[in-house]
Amino acid sequence: MTLRVGLLGGTFDPIHFGHLRSAVEVREYLALDELRLIPNATPPHRDRPGASAQQRLEMVCLATASDASLLVDDCELQRDRPSYTVDTLESLRAELGAEAALFLIVGWDAFSGLPGWHRWEEILQLASLVVLQRPEQDQELPEVLKDLLAARSVGDASAMQATHGEILCLAQTPLAISATHIRSLIQAGRSPRFLLPDSVLGYIETKGLYRP
Ligand code: ATP
């Protein structure tokens, strides 16, 4: 049996129910053996996070503690350089072997910026892509990604059987939650409760994160 592993990378600044619900739905829909959440250390594509890498990792661990099928992989935090997805995929390939099916899960916003990623054209040689719809998505795809979708898209999960190289666009339960919104609520002195797990909110309050 082929091992099927989903990979959800992110800044998780902080992790919220948009990430967690997507993770559970993709795991079930693609019948994954495991799903790894991979916090990034030095995100190459964005401003410095409000919480440290260690704090973001601890929040991801807290959020997933009650679900044994959601694993936390801190491989990007072990590296002393920017978190390039292609490097992570290469090391996971080396760890899991050529026979494993790897599914890199990205939101639509992240996918639309794919051509800016380091060695992005090699990503599909290492994994398949699962592109999550986001309710507020308004990014127009560049031509190169429209062509890629036309060439590599599969219609549904049952067609997604290769170890790498395919793309599935997935409409899951739409949750218009973003870490940006959660941070701005806290900055404004308002509560982000019920947008993220209580355990994560408790951690944010204890550490005084995201306050002005
Ligand atoms: P920020 O608002 O700080 O940019 P974010 O909420 O988009 O953060 P990230 O850690 O950047 O969270 O996201 C990690 C991955 O999860 C990305 O691929 C992103 O597109 C996806 N994602 C985040 N929130 C949702 C959501 N509500 N629904 C679906 N996908 C999401």
Cα-atom radius of gyration: 17 Å
Numbering strands along the chain, what is their spatial order in the largest sheet? 3-2-1-4-5-6
Biggest sheet descriptor? 6 strands, parallel
How far the N terminus sits from the C terminus, by CA atoms, comes to 51 Å
CATH class: Alpha Beta
Q: What are the segments in which pLDDT stays under 50 over at least 5 consecutive residues?
A: none
* Strand percentage: 15-25%
Number of domains: 1
Ligand list:
adenosine-5'-triphosphate
The oligomeric state is single chain
| Helix-strand makeup class | alpha/beta
The CATH architecture comes to: 3-Layer(aba) Sandwich
**CATH fold node name:** Rossmann fold
CATH homologous superfamily descriptor = HUPs
Helix content: 25-40%
Backbone shape: globular
EC number: 2.7.7.18
Function: Catalyzes the reversible adenylation of nicotinate mononucleotide (NaMN) to nicotinic acid adenine dinucleotide (NaAD).
Domain Cytidyltransferase-like: 7-183
Protein name: Probable nicotinate-nucleotide adenylyltransferase
